[in-house]
Amino acid sequence: MKLPGLIDPHVHLREPGGEYKEDWWSGTQAALSGGFTTILAMPNTLPPICDESSLDLALKSASDKAVCDYAQYLGAGADNIDSLLGIIEKSAGLKMYLNLTFGTLRLDDMSLWMAHFRSMSKWSRQMPIVVHAEKHTMAAVIFLAQLFDKPIHIAHVSLKEEILLIKLAKEKGIKVTCEVTPHHLFLTDDDIPHIGIGKSEVRPRLATHEDQKALWENLDIIDCFATDHAPHTLEEKESDQAPPGFPGLETALPLFLTAVSEGRLSLEDLITRMSVNPRRIFHLPEQPATFIEIDMDTTYEVKGSKLFTRSAWSPFEGWKVKGRVSRVVLRGKEAFRDGKIMVSPGFGKNLRLFH
């Protein structure tokens, strides 16, 4: 079965500062293995990517190492409001962290939110600001989107009250799109004892069955499926102070293909939310002669030790899934085949420069 190349608008590659967890080479290998021909990389690295020098550093690493196409977000900070306009076009866009997350980019002052909205409205009326916002901060930032008439894209929606709020905002004509992760669609807080306390740490946290049910019941409100691939080593996840995050690039498509085979999701739903909508929302160029091939007859167990990601574990360890990526063709070049990367580091292109 042939599908278009997938796009993941929410990926953490840990470079710079956490290359032992993941870098552009290992992370984009994982992307290709999972059927993703484009990823958008998050800025909450150590140090964060929030100015021209750090952006150029990240893009240089990507240019040297990436094997799939990409763009890199800039992070909104307290002191970079006036300096972003000159460099934002080189990036995937602006990411605002309004709730606790991994890294140092959280913005607690709503006046800073307004300043960033005002600044970004001068750049492009069409490009969304991507926000990590939960519950009350989500309501507040949706209100700002209305006030500034500026599109926002809400990351990793996880709760019933959140998806219902977004539904209402869309009905009122507010320019809001959203994404949901596989782990919030397929896992709940009931899975924590099986996965392990530290290994279950993620932001937003795993929610209840009622929340999960609401996400599936409001699938038409969900614009994108995004992995929020956030790798940490197994040792870190099993420690007393486990950092939040799951690897997800290589398990997302098999989980959704399994849902398709079970009749919970249509293939059109999958393609719309993993290719068509991300390209439209983030204004990404077409990738000519790009597609993936899937073996839908293969059933297998998820094994973290067999993944390309440097973190080498999965919260879905032992899950039986149906559907494996057998081949990826990117821009006319065979990039992945039968478990092997077929292109050299640096084959990936920056989609903000690639036409």
Query: Overall mean pLDDT score?
Result: 96
Number of domains: 1
Q: Find the CATH superfamily.
A: Metal-dependent hydrolases
Radius of gyration: 19 Å
Structural class: alpha/beta
Tell me what you see in this structure:
The chain is built from eleven helices and 14 strands. Helix 3 packs parallel to helix 4 and helix 5 (160-171) packs parallel to helix 8 (209-217). The longest helix is centred in the last third of the chain and has 15 residues, at 267-281. It starts with a strand and ends in a 14-residue tail after the last strand. 31% of the residues lie in helices and 19% in strands. It has helices spanning 24-33, 52-65, 110-123, 136-148, 160-171, 182-186, 192-195, 209-217, 234-237, 252-261, 267-281; strands at 2-4, 6-11, 36-41, 69-72, 74-75, 94-97, 129-132, 152-154, 176-180, 224-225, 291-301, 320-330, 333-337, 340-341. Strand 12 (320-330) and strand 13 (333-337) form a beta hairpin. The protein is of the alpha/beta class and 355 residues long. A six-stranded parallel β-sheet has the order 5-6-7-8-9-10. The model has no long low-confidence stretch (mean pLDDT 96). The protein has a single domain, classed as Metal-dependent hydrolases (TIM Barrel), CATH 3.20.20.
